[in-house]
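Predict the structure of Flavin reductase.
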Amino acid sequence: MSISSHNPPVPVDTRHFRHALSQFATGVTIITTCLPDGRFLGLTASSFNSVSLEPPLVLWSLNQRANSMPIFSGNSHYVINVLAADQAEIANQFARPGEDRFKGIDYTLSATGLPILSGVAAWFECHNRSRYPEGDHVIFVGEVEACDVCPKEPLVFHGGRFLSAWQP
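Done. Here is the predicted structure for Flavin reductase.
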């Protein structure tokens, strides 16, 4: 059976599109890097995905108007921290504008001196391999140079809120 439509496509309403996207559950990450003055920068992102096993590549995206865009675009490395279910408050802290998002946050340093947050389910230290502007975001592709895993219940973002994927 073939279905065809001769009606012109209806423009997608941005609010409705965002609401529809919110029904796709995603993991939650915090991307960390370093500012030119040596302080750290981090932000919450749910746009994370694997790209390739050989070479090991991952991607995430950032709004083109984000204040952090010049830093992430210009830096050679960043760390993607995959949050565990008990880290919703940390996700909120890194999602809010503020001067020191790392206040009260435990972390260790990666081989390139970037923060790896304590208690995460996994982390990926990436070389900033390439960037692709698409729509109102830039897609960052990182080549994974190091990673580690500590299997835990994941933090999930769905319907505009943080959840545990393993909740009944």
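The longest strand covers residues 122-134.
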